[in-house]
Amino acid sequence: RELEELKKTKDYSRDEDMKEVNPNLDPDKIETCMNCTLCTATYDMRRRGYDVTAGFTDLGKYDEEIMSWYKRAKVENALQGWNSRNFSEIQKQEAVIKRLEALGDGARGHFSAPDTTLSFAHDVAFEIENHKLIFRDCQSNEKYENPKEYLKNWNMDHASFIRVDHLEYSDKIINALRRK
Fold first, then answer.
1. With the CA atoms of 32, 142, 161 and 123 taken in that order, what torsion angle do they form, in degrees rounded to the nearest 10?
2. Which residue in 111, 103, 143 sits closest to 41, CA to CA?
């Protein structure tokens, strides 16, 4: 019920929705720089017609919390079924791209991976548009139409995703966002 009050009054393009996710991004304010997971969830909500922006946090969010925002959410290893020790990083990236693109047009979700030094992780939105994988860093408003260009900075052995476009929200997601 509370979510219905947040419906948008006009339709936005994907790029317009992404721009509205984290409009107060300030590199000097940790609460707008550590909210990547909130930004990804907010982008999903905007694509479904809700007029919201990302909430603020200085702690980051993790898979367990994301899963609580959606009913029946499931974290999947991006290289599931692969013995990745025998493959190059480029082959691993190609396998991740193939796996996500196999979800089909309209698939959308959270993609999370640590950087190549394993010192921090980042959460971005993924979407399959016209049978092609696109990554959207909704925190910084950056779109990556070349998935290999995005993936080269991240460790594929620890990458995961949660497909959310087909899931219902739980009541907990309301805490991840702000009214626009």
1. -20
2. 111
Query: Helix H segments across the chain?
Result: 14-21, 30-33, 36-47, 63-69, 89-101, 147-151
Which of 19-23, 77-81, 85-89 has the highest average model confidence (pLDDT)? 19-23
Q: Is the Cβ–Cβ distance between 147 and 133 less than 8 Å? A: yes
Q: Read off the pLDDT of residues 61-71 as tens digits, 9 standing for 90 and up.
A: 555 677 788 99
Distance CA 78, CA 83 (A): 12
Contact 10, 56 (CB under 8 A): no
The answer to whether 91 touches 152, Cβ cutoff 8 Å, is no
What does the block give as tokens for 37? Answer: 């997971």
| Tokens linked to 92 | 């691993």
Q: Which amino acid is at 20?
A: E
Q: Give the pLDDT confidence score for residue 60 in this predicted structure.
A: 56
Residue tagged 């290999």 (tokens): 148
Are 123 and 111 spatial neighbours (Cβ–Cβ below 8 Å)? yes
Name the region of 162 (left: φ>0; alpha: ψ -120 to 50; beta: rest): beta
